[in-house]
Amino acid sequence: MTHSFVYDTVRTPFGRFAGALAGVRTDDLATVVVKGIVQRAPGLAADPGLIDTVVFGDANQAGEDNRNVGRMAALLAGLPTSIPATTVNRLCGSSLDAAMVASREIEVGDAEVVLVGGVESMSRAPWVLPKTEKPYPAGNLALASTTLGWRLVNPAMPPAWTVSLGEATEQLREKHAISRERQDAFAERSHRLAEAAWRSGFYDDLTVPVPGVELTRDESIRPDTTLERLAALRTAFRTEGGTVTAGNSSPLNDGASAVLLGSAAAADRIGLPPLARVAGRGAHAVEPQYFGFAPVEAANRALARAGIGWDDVGQVELNEAFAAQSLACVDAWGIDPEIVNPHGGAIAIGHPLGASGGRILGTLARGLQRSGRRWGVAAICIGVGQGLAVVLENVRAGA
After folding, report:
1. pTM exceeding 0.85
2. Cα–Cα nearest to 350, from 320, 328, 314
3. Rounded to 5 degrees, what are φ and ψ at 17?
4. Residue in 372, 399, 379 with CA at minimum distance from that of residue 92
């Protein structure tokens, strides 16, 4: 078996719900990052036919992202029609799952160059009207929103599993004794570090603009966020005894990401040197209501497969679905919180579900390159009780 490597990564700036990207079709958002990452690779820009396959992540697939949005994006981007494409759905972990699928294809020799992507437009997620068992029902019918969370729930599912993501997080923070004060401090840090990262130029080379849209940075970042303002927010899911608010949760967002993976031998085809090696992968599942804690064991498994431990890790990109679940994971790992999301996280940057895995993987690869640290972990929690993690090794560390 060969190794798989990250060669490049791009994403759009992430837009707020009903914000700057709300007028852009989901498949068009995906097309932007496909074009962007191909144009940055000299070999592929000259001959995009060198791409063996496209693997995309997408959580919704009920609207303009229907019928295999990965294939649609490849066609709309002008890639040769001979390049196959697939779309995978592991909810919030979809594009990280796509990268894991691609890395396996490369390692077993089924592909040399794989374009991985992820996309979500939570603004444009449609309402759906389920078909009735009998035609022409006399009563009223209700539309279901596909933006986020459970819908059209099977009545056989235990009610404890199908609580809202916010209520599930309240239960998780109770279990792990995560205070409101810690959650708000974590959220304030996310905004502060994301703002500093944009100001320093860290994200300039990681993002590509969306044509026709005046959005040059992530739209959800609030540089004026303070602990006092966060503490004044009402709880969102429990009126009594709750701690989870809009301020210490990730927002609803629109955006797309892409990661270019290849074998060691693919460097000449791509025309770029590799950034990082995919050294380990891990997946884990828990009871659905404790979904936020699933990254803990997923990351532990990925580290074991990479042959290293937490003491070796210099950077962690953990998707911040909620501050409470992020803190529970960090506490369980027993790591220095300062190595977690040093360039801000999803509470500030945003969480367009299908795109977030690609964002954290790309940020990790570029972050390791900039810091010179050797090992990093990208981890993400997933609704219905799952977690994924990938370990990267900076191939330029010590060079």
Report:
1. yes
2. 320
3. -60, 130
4. 379
Cα separation values, 256 from 79, 168, 318, Å: 18, 27, 18
Distances (CA, A) of 288 to 145, 240, 248, 252, 292: 20, 23, 21, 21, 9
pLDDT at 399: 54
How crowded is residue 359: how many other Cβ atoms within 10 Å of its Cβ?
34
Instruction: Determine the residue type at 376.
Output: G
Residue 75 CB coordination number (10 Å): 18
290-300, pLDDT tens digit by residue? Answer: 999 999 999 99
The third-level CATH classification (topology) of the domain covering 4-124+251-392 is: Peroxisomal Thiolase; Chain A, domain 1 (3.40.47)
Q: How many other β-carbons are positioned within 10 Å of the β-carbon of residue 300?
A: 19
83 is written with which tokens?
């390049």
Find out whether 102 and 55 touch, Cβ atoms under 8 Å. Answer: yes
Model confidence pLDDT, tens digit, residues 185-242: 999 999 999 999 999 999 999 999 999 999 999 999 999 999 999 999 999 999 899 9
Q: Which residues are catalytic?
A: 92, 351, 381
**pLDDT in the model for residue 2:** 93
Domains of the chain, by residue range, sit at 4-124+251-392
